[in-house]
Amino acid sequence: MGKLHYFLGIEVSRSSSGNLHVFQQKYICELLDRGFMSDAKSVSTPMYLRGTSSHGLVFGPSDRLSLADYADANWGLDFDDRRSTTGYCVYLSHIPFSWCSKKQSVVSHSTAEAEYRSLTATTSDITWLVSLLAELNVKPVDLLVIWCNNSSAVAIAANPVLNSKFKHVELDLFFVREKVINGDLIVGEVLGCDQVADTSFSSIYRIVCILYGQVKVSQSITSISCFLSSLEISFFFDSSSTNRDEAINADHLRKIKYIVNEQIKAELDVYSKEATLAEAKRINGLQAVFGEVYPDPVRVVAIGRKVEDLLANPENREWPSISSELCGGTHITNTQEAKAFALLSEEEIAKGVRRITAVTTESALKATELGDLLLQKVDDASKMEVNLLEKKVASLKTSVDSASIPAAKKADIRAKIAQLQNQLKKAQKNIAKQNMQKAVTIAIELAKLALYLPD
Asked: Is CATH 3.90.170.10 the classification given to domain 201-361?
């Protein structure tokens, strides 16, 4: 049959060193042409596809053929239906071979259940891949391994005795435990910082730590939780204990955004080290998630100062000004990697519970750029004639209400739009007054004229 060059829309080329390059340049170009988006310079997705159409996967020779999988889940990510998201990545001899990010079909009642459902999806996929490789007369040398960063899910997969509270999950997902018990695969635990399927959250984790510190200063909050996605941070805090259920004002939001971005610009190194739970808890100003049960030893992460310095002098009054926390998640190595931070909203979602929504990296840059653009449009509108201003103000108000822009800037723009509305009302009143005066003048003139007309 000869060498493989093209199969089901996938192009294959071989280098002189024997590496296989698998890519879809032809298909991507055809897709863009069909959508008339080959030159869509202002739209990010077509631009990205156009610029990376020749990128692909490179498969090189390997001494051992093995399959390893990293499975993860983001619990309750969707605020509308509270369904979690499964993410996994399969490696064939250290090369990405198959990956997926998909919302789960049912609501998981705990992080362990969400992670176990992710394990199930991963096991199903890797089982199919093994059968596919078998048809190609390729058999992995090493035992299949799935890595998960949730100790409860790992324990459930390996334990033949199932807790009664988890039996509803067993009905759907029993085959993972069967495969582990039969020795078909191993489910191992991996630290969050080494979780390949979770790398897109690394910048957000660090920003949460900084954000927590700044909101705590602003509101004196007593408890906290957060949901993270690759797109945004949703950050919850309890303000009821402070008798301050009102919103954080625009000045405070602006200050929080400024401080977080200053720490990003400062290019501060991020340090981590394991310590005993007792030692870690002694650190002055250390942050922890309310209600979270931490292992012992625990991982301490700090920004701008080495963890050893914090442990050596835990009661130092300087430490509350430094972002430090207990966390086993995925982290950047320097704050500069977060690129930018934008705080999009702050709102009450229940009595005494408020939510902050924020973004980092390119999303933050785009939000800031859009905010500047809308502010400029409002400034331009203030110079328009009154007969054009009414429609423009209504259009701007709709655009600003739906725009994902920094909350402080949105408040500033709304204040300017309110000024335009007041300006418009005054102008309309003046016009109405002038029209009334004109009408009265005309009526008087007509009345005078009527006196001189014959009967």
From this structure: no
Which amino acid, 279?
Answer: E
How far CA 50 is from CA of 29, 37, 423, in Å, comes to 7, 9, 47
Tell which residue, 245, 256, 272, has the closest CA to residue 407: 256
CA distance 408 to 254: 6
Range list of H helices, 136-282: 151-158, 167-181, 202-219, 250-265, 277-281
Beta strands at 95-103 and 67-74: parallel, antiparallel or unpaired: unpaired
The structural domains of the chain, with segments of one domain joined by +, span: 1-61, 63-190, 201-361, 364-440
pLDDT exceeds 80 at position 151? no
CATH domain 63-190 topology: Nucleotidyltransferase; domain 5 (3.30.420)
Strands, sheet with 224-228, edge to edge from the N-terminal-most edge strand: 224-228, 233-238, 353-360, 341-350
Task: At 35, give phi and psi (nearest 5°).
Answer: -90, 5
Alpha-helix runs per DSSP H in 294-404? 307-312, 361-381, 386-402
Q: Is the peptide bond before 297 cis (omega within 30 degrees of 0)?
A: yes
What gap in Å lies between CA 114 and CA 72, rounded to an integer? 9
Angle of the 407-452 helix axis to the 386-402 helix axis, nearest 10:
160
In this predicted structure, the answer to whether residue 156 has a pLDDT above a threshold of 60 is yes
Report how far residue 116's alpha carbon sits from residue 105's, in angstroms, rounded to the nearest whole number. Answer: 13
Strand partners for 11: 6, 23
User: Is residue 370 classed exposed, middle or buried when 0-12, 13-18 and 19+ CB atoms within 10 A define those classes?
Assistant: middle
Closest CA to 255 of 215, 223, 303: 215
Of 175-184, 279-288, 326-335, the range with the lowest mean pLDDT is: 326-335
Choose the most confident range, by mean pLDDT, from 75-79, 372-376, 428-432.
372-376
Banded model confidence at residue 173, pLDDT cuts 50, 70, 90: low
User: Would you say the C-alpha torsion 408, 409, 414, 415 has a positive or negative sign?
Assistant: positive
Q: Cα dist. 453→296, 442, 446, 447, 450 in Å?
A: 106, 17, 11, 10, 5
pTM here? Answer: 0.52
